[in-house]
Amino acid sequence: MPSPFWMSIEVFDGGSSTAASWAEAWGDALVEAALASRAVDWSWQRSSFGTIFEVAFTDAEDWERYRDSLTVQAALDAVPDPLSGLIVYRGRGGSAAKRSPRKPRPLQGAGAAALPLPLDEEWLLFREQFELPARSLILG
Asked: Global pTM?
């Protein structure tokens, strides 16, 4: 069975109205037009910045038929922010990612850095300062 051809219509909030009010006004008409164009699945996603309508068709021709319908053209013309408030793209929109936040990645090398090795002369001087004489260990 071929995978569905998903398309997303993302509408952002505008200055005078919200994307949620746009979805209330045009949602039923968009779903009706999708069913008339042989859509196999659809979903609405709400976000803090707007609304995403995801719709799946069996092939790209069905999507083109849907996109060219007068209902869809009127709905897209009525978005709250006509200049920068509309994105239409292939694939699923806001619901494609996981709802849980990403886990932080471990630091490369566990956050450790290699320390320089002490010089042989410095090591001998350091060791001599802390070594006890052999007699004190035996008599001690």
From this structure: 0.64
